[in-house]
Amino acid sequence: MTKFQDFERLHVPGDPLVLFNVWDAGSAQAVARGGAKAIATGSASVAKANGFGDGQELPMEFALANARRIAKAVDLPVTVDFEGAYSDDPDEGARNFALLAETGVVGCNFEDQVVGSEGLHPIEMQADRIAAARRAVGPDFFINVRTDLFLKAPQETHDDAMLDEAIERVLAYAEAGASGYFVPMLGDLEKLRRLCAESPIPVNFMTYPECPSNAEVASTGVARISHGPFPHLALMAQFEAAARAAIG
Amino acid sequence: MPSNQADRFQTFAALHVPGDPVILYNIWDVGSALAVVKAGARALATGSHPVGDASGFGDAHQVPLDYVFANAGRIVAAVDPLPLSVDFEGAYSTDPEEGGRNVANLKQSGAVGCNFEDQIVGGDGIHPLELQARRIEAIRRAVGADFFINARTDLFLKAADHGDALIDEVIDRGKAFADAGASGFFVPRLADPRQIERVVQEVPLPLNVIAFPGAPPKSEWAAAGVARISHGPFPHRALMVQLEEAARAAIS
């Protein structure tokens, strides 16, 4: 079985794959020793670790080289948080997807927010971008398409109309060739349940402070739980405390 | 506006006070550097092993020079105006002139100093004293006066018997390194306060030792005259164990 097939099969609705996000080869190896079945980078963590802002300020060449080093450092499938593929243009984005696939990783996150600007790409435009990416990488690459609908809006405004749009988007994204659907900051279990029921592709939940437990999230039918920027943030707080103790 | 590199060098050199050592908690990237800055550090120092492990290249000159320089430049920009020293292993060449050029390029990144070791990187043992002195001289010529060359001897790392005969050899090296233009003397694994006192008395350079798990309290080293205490690979290793544990808890 290839690493891609391994990775794809780990997405089981109700028994989610848990990804503890990393930022470099060393953190990937630590998480692998912790028993991970797959490795995922977080774009904000990679950017912060290296002194860049999030939102594609990390040069793509760095992102690709980092991906290559991580893929070489661990024997597990690796997925990269690739933001908006460094281009709004479907064809250029697709070329960037192909470069990423060449690094040895088996998948990536791909956002529908307009990176560096406001709002989301229109559904049709995002579907075109996904279709172009799929043509560029072929079938053996896990395109985890992320909608930023919920991330962009305060949680108390997450209503049924927003969920309807999220469902409309996933139907179009799946049709265009997406492998998975990532909905950061959707934390309402009932809404998650409805989304999982209607999504033709595995749904990815991101943990955040005070969010529902993994067991509760799993019960809604989620197939992947990731941790976004939080592992790096927590670890750097621990590092600061250790340094303070050493410096005295 | 970024601070002036020569000013940062002066700041860094002045932090080396025998008896009141500067504490360097070694880092590997911008994120770890910023955490140490928040903790109150007065200067930053990379560890070559952490940089090698974090990036996946490995230690012993496996991290490409371009990466070392770019990483140093990013850290310098992020922690300005605090000074940065880079653990530069054997300057990526046994040839004195080439080593000098490499350290001059490192200085271009904005770092104000580096560690420079006498072990044969990728081989066995340590360089003969005369060769090592020539390498230090060449580096000093290449970088000028305002760069902190922290000359490291690996005698203690390489030897099993840490008796007084070895201390004599360490002192010979320290004196020769000082004559060759070193700014500081770094003896990893040296830990016994009585031996430290002898080195401090006889070598005319600020002494740097590495804190390790189980080492004597820093106050004892300070009382013996140490001017700089660094932490080598241990901070990164400990943190990666914490990450492993956090991952295990999250996954299970």
Count of individual beta strands of chain B: 8
Oligomer category: heterodimer
Q: How many alpha or pi helices of chain B?
A: 11
Highest CATH level, the class of chain B = Alpha Beta
CATH topology grouping of chain A: TIM Barrel
Span from first to last CA of chain B? 48 Å
CATH evolutionary superfamily of chain A: Phosphoenolpyruvate-binding domains
Give the number of helices of chain A.
10
| CATH level-four homologous superfamily name of chain B | Phosphoenolpyruvate-binding domains
Instruction: Tell me what the CATH architecture of chain A is.
Output: Alpha-Beta Barrel
Mean pLDDT of chain A equals 97
**Uncertain ranges of chain B:** none
Order of helices and strands of chain B: HEHEHHEHEHEHHEHEHEH
Supply the number of structural domains of chain A.
Answer: 1
Q: Give the strand order, joined by hyphens, for the main sheet of chain A.
A: 1-8-7-6-5-4-3-2
- Which structural class do you get from the secondary structure elements of chain A? alpha/beta
Q: How does the overall form of chain A come out from the CA principal axes? A: globular
As a percent range, the share of helical residues of chain B equals 40-55%
Structure notes:
The complex is a heterodimer of chains A (248) and B (252). With 248 residues, chain A is an alpha/beta fold. Chain A has one domain: TIM Barrel. Helices cover 46% and strands 12% of the residues of chain A. Chain A has 10 helices and 8 strands. Chain A has an 8-stranded parallel sheet with strand order 1-8-7-6-5-4-3-2. Chain A is globular. With 252 residues, chain B is α/β, with parallel strands linked by helices. Chain B has one domain: Phosphoenolpyruvate-binding domains (TIM Barrel, Alpha-Beta Barrel). Chain B contains 11 helices and 8 strands. An 8-stranded parallel sheet of chain B has the order 1-8-7-6-5-4-3-2. The termini of chain B are far apart. The relative contact order of chain B is 0.15. At the A-B interface, helix 2, helix 4 and helix 10 of A face helix 2, helix 3, helix 4 and helix 11 of B.
